[in-house]
Amino acid sequence: MHPITKRLTVFALPIALALGGCALNPAHPWTDYGLTLAKTSSPAQTATLPFILRVDAINAPDWLESRNFYYRLDYADSQKIFAYSEARWLTAPPTMLHTLLTERLVRSGLFKAVIAPGNTAEANYDLRLSLQAFEQDFKTLKSSTAIVRLRASLIDEANGSVTAQKQFAIRVPAGQDAQSGAAALNYAANELTNELEDWIADTLDHAKR
After folding, report:
1. CATH no. for residue 112?
2. N or C: which end of the chain has fewer CB within 10 A?
3. DSSP letter assigned to residue 175
4. Number of domains in the chain
């Protein structure tokens, strides 16, 4: 069990209600937020990397494998994590990020093919991802930061060796409620996919030489 999991029973519902941006509706007490792939002005490139890339399901601690929308009150106790009472994600963050990243890599046109974990095709490289943070952290009652932190590893399927590994951390300013936090996390997730795409392309371009 991840060490932070034990703290998840401490939900600050009164605080979450104060921070939430929408009224409680008995018929639909939640506002669901998702991730949307940002449009890019750059057209898809002709495949320059003769590799099939498999994007594994994103690994994450138990507390992130839910639809809860988490935040921290850094000005009070940064070690405690809370969940909004009126906001949640459409699906668990690892699932949303996997969909976003896979779509981005497919659209890039950089690779011979990009496949999902269940695809039985033989891949050249395996992208393994570990999500460590996907949350909104408050420095004050009115000021927060969206944080996405992830570790990526590229595995050579020919011999199982690690070709490259990198830690990513994206921080985006947000406001005082879940709506602003969701928008900032969406922006952060897209920035993460940008950085991951560049890193994978640079790493595999070097590998083909």
Report:
1. 3.40.50.10610
2. C
3. -
4. 1
SS3 132: strand
Amino acid identity, position 64: L
Alpha carbons 15 and 21: distance in angstroms, whole number: 12
Q: Residue 33 — pLDDT band, cuts 50, 70, 90?
A: very high
| 96-110 residue pLDDT tens | 999 999 999 999 999
Q: Which residue has the tokens 């095709």?
A: 121
0.70 exceeded by pTM = yes
Report if residue 43 sits inside a domain.
no
Domain membership of residue 70 as a residue range: 5-20+48-207
175 pLDDT higher than 50: yes
Residue 71 near residue 82, CB atoms below 8 Å: yes
**Distance of alpha carbon 167 from alpha carbon 188, whole angstroms:** 15
Alpha-carbon distance of 53 to 123, in angstroms, equals 6
**Strand boundaries in the chain, DSSP class E:** 31-33, 49-55, 68-73, 78-89, 111-115, 125-138, 144-156, 161-174
Is residue 29 one of the residues assigned to a domain?
no
What's the pLDDT at 23? 39
Question: Is the residue at 36 inside a domain?
Answer: no
